[in-house]
Amino acid sequence: MSDVHIDGGERNAARTRQVVDYLAALPGQIDAVVISGDLTQIGRPVDYAALREILAPLEVPVLCCPGNHDERGAFRAGMLGLEEGSGPVNQAHEVAGASILLCDSLIPGSDAGRLGPETLSWLDSALTRSDGPAFVVLHHPPVAVGIPELDAIRLQDADDLAAVLARHPRVAGVLCGHVHAAVATTFAGVPVRVAPGVKSTTTLPWEHTGDPTNLDLPVGLAFHHHENDVLTTHFRSL
Ligand SMILES: [Fe+2]
Ligand SMILES: [Fe+2]
């Protein structure tokens, strides 16, 4: 799931709860929940605390990366229980035989994304540390998706990410958010999946005149299934 934008209001919290309740009530097992950034609207500690409470019913690991609307220090403290700090928040997790590598693409004060040398070299070494499939999670998609408003604020150093991915064929997918739309594409020969936005849906240029943000479409999520070296994604609207 992605872009829950918790803001102190009831609406976004209710939509997030809708996804969490759905996942928590599944009769079968999933391995983990990934939230690909924009956890809050403006990065307040109180909003991370509220989100933690909303996510509490989930009994699987919940892995989060920050987005442009997040604040690193508050994210680090509120979601990871770590001391506040200003550097990028990168995390490696092993789940069900796969590596989930969550990269921090936020640029303080900007809506665009950038991984930067520190995070790229962290990713490069994290990818050499084990084998098996790896999923790279970052908020900002590294490719244009055909929505001008979002393409203008996508990942800036995508070429550098492509160079890292080229060295590691074990990367099975790149999982993003930021677009607020369910999107499937490819980047550097790797499948890219953008999870739908919990808060809203960004419509396509030929679907609107004016503001592309649609608040009325249903809340959604993506299920990722990896088998025989193939990533298959099922998108679900609730
Ligand atoms: Fe967002
Ligand atoms: Fe975003």
TrEMBL record:
CDD domains, alphabetized: MPP_GpdQ (cd07402)
Keywords: Hydrolase, Iron, Metal-binding
InterPro entries: Calcineurin-like_PHP, CNP_phosphodiesterase-III, GpdQ/CpdA-like, Metallo-depent_PP-like
Domain Calcineurin-like phosphoesterase span(s) in chain numbering: 1-181
One Pfam family from the record: Metallophos
Taxonomic superkingdom: Bacteria
SUPFAM superfamilies linked to this entry: Metallo-dependent phosphatases
Molecular function via GO: cyclic-nucleotide phosphodiesterase activity; metal ion binding
Family (UniProt): Belongs to the cyclic nucleotide phosphodiesterase class-III family.
Name of the protein: Phosphodiesterase
